[in-house]
Amino acid sequence: MQNRRLRRILTQILEVPARRIKSRASLVNDLGMDSLHRIELVARIEQEFGNLIDERRINKFTSVGDLARLLELPFGSKQKERYVWAWCHSSMALPARFILQRTVFFLAGFLMKVLTTNKEALQIIPKGQPVIFVANHSSHLDTVAILASLPGSFRKRTAVAAAEDYMYRNPFFGSFISLLVNAYPFSRKNSYTSLHRTAKLINEGWHVLFYPEGSRSQNGKIQRFKPGIGFLVSKLNVAVVPVRIRGTDSILPKGSVMPKYGVVSVTFGKPVIFGNRSDYRRITNEIEKVVRSL
Q1: Average pLDDT, the chain
Q2: What is the SS3 assignment for 209?
Q3: What domains are defined for the chain?
Q4: Average pLDDT over residues 47-75
Q5: What's the chain's Rg over C-alpha atoms?
Q6: Residues with Cβ < 8 Å from 70, sequence gap 6 or more?
Q7: Residue 93's pLDDT band (boundaries 50, 70, 90)?
Q8: Kind of pairing between the strands at 158-163 and 131-135
């Protein structure tokens, strides 16, 4: 029965005939699974079987039979994730974050002058409605500049997706970043867990600042957006606020440790709603296009 349900899920997600879902068939090489299919597969397995599979164990060598066997492993049992960073979202953290951010904003004033454009676009957003701020990324200063540009009512309810393998390698530094900018770990290797964390925050009424390029640009030019942002937006049906930031790459570019003074511009676009569409890649491309146009 379990194998039959798994085959049905694979047929629906991969859009292939049932006759091709054979035990030895490779999920990637034979059935055409990509990263978005993998995320959706993990989500469907959790929904259908109540099991949570480590997405990293599904790769180009995994067959249908291997996947079925993964469901039988102890790791597959569903467990509630321990949000070790969740304390930063509590009311107790607000006073400390306010003081820290004010200090950082003051010090950042010696490095950059931030000019904000079209902030009135945020007035369109109904009070209490969460949005995803989607921005280009070329410097560690991007988050500081964007948060400084947000009205206080938005800033204190905005969580920042931060690279887990970079910002959270050291637990003490990760805790500091979580407190400072209300960050949470976003794994670039386990997309489903990260998207689940993001969805949890949005469902709790938090805005999220997201950098869909996946890493900082080397030359300040916008890189192609990863399709995960389109998947997230389509599943949550949440409005996207495009943000274009310029100038931080001249002050503190990737690989540099010595900043120099400069002017930074942060431009907000009008909120975009994509509805219940399922074409993840097209949504991603449209978001990227809007950010580039600002």
Answers
A1: 83
A2: strand
A3: 2-76 (1.10.1200.10), 86-293 (3.40.1130.10)
A4: 71
A5: 20
A6: 53, 57, 58, 76
A7: confident
A8: unpaired
Listing DSSP states for 47-64 in one string gives HHHSB---GGG--TT-BH
The pair of structure tokens assigned to 103 is 């200090």
Q: From CA 41, how far away is CA 55, in angstroms rounded?
A: 9
User: For the chain, how long is the longest CA-to-CA vector?
Assistant: 65
**Most confident range, picked from 26-30, 42-46, 285-289:** 285-289
- Residue appearing with tokens 């570019």: 253
- Which pair of structure tokens corresponds to residue 120? 């009135």
* Token duo for residue 183: 């960050």
- Report residue 81 CA to chain centroid gap: 17
102 vs 87: CA distance, rounded Å:
20
Q: CA of 102: how far to CAs of 58, 95, 109, 155, 159, in Å?
A: 44, 11, 11, 12, 17
Token pair of 8 as six digits: 């049905």
Model confidence, pTM: 0.78
Residues 269-277 have a mean pLDDT of: 84
Tokens representing residue 115 in the block: 């000019």
Half-sphere exposure of 128 (CA within 13 A, CB side): 0
Number of separate helices (H) and strands (E) present in the chain: 12, 7
Structure tokens at 54: 């480590």
Q: Are strands 262-268 and 239-246 parallel, antiparallel or unpaired?
A: antiparallel
DSSP-derived secondary structure letter, 116:
E
What interhelical angle do 191-203 and 228-236 show, nearest 10? 40
Q: What tens digit of pLDDT does each residue of 253-271 get?
A: 888 888 899 999 999 999 9
Residue 81 has pLDDT above 50, yes or no: no
